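Why does residue order matter? Because the sequence determines the fold. Keep that principle in mind as you read this record.
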Amino acid sequence: MSDRGVFAVDRGVFEHPIFAPEPFTEREAWLWMLSAAAWSDRRIRVGKSAIDLKRGQLAFATRFLAVKWQWSHSKVVRFLKKLKTDTMLNTEPKRDATLITICNYNEYQFGRNADETQNETPTDTQAERQRNKEEESNNLITKNIGGEVAADEKVVPIRRYAFEGRIIRLDQAQFDRWKTTYNKLPDITATLQAADDFYSENPPKDGKWFFPVSRWLEKEHTKIAAEEEKQRREARSF
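Structure:
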């Protein structure tokens, strides 16, 4: 294809409120998997299991994907099987999830010159070097479609997340608002991680996490405030 090239996409596009909550197309489901794949080796928790991810891997329960993409479970299974048959990905069943490995992940993640091989050190364009620097400093995935960055192409800035889990993603402004609102929480990051672990295993029916997580924080905040008030009353009684 003569019009192929690399472009960066903020993965917040999948949660942007301007877009109607409608079922994903197959293309959107594929792009979502590219955006969710690990950009570097890391360990995640899915249900009661810890899974080590290599670069280009992701692990989700297929029933979670069905909720996220607003598909039937059988459609998710058929889609993954089709991609596996077409050597676009590989799958491996785990206890609480399906481990998905994106084939040729580097071709989607970074643009490469046609005469480069996987064993050679690539000669990056200026745009590629800048994008790599942003990826390393922000610890975020840059979503690309394979090809070389043209000299006049503009790389879209990547959103910085103050908290980024498998389900929950908060920019700095929202993180600060919740930290102020639920100021009784001794470690809001730990509470958010607990909520993220829960909703990774038990996704909301409509796929929207914002209000359930807000209620989760409010419940924990209220519990701590009530306990503090109880202790104050007991102290005054002496």
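DSSP finds eight helices and seven strands in the chain.
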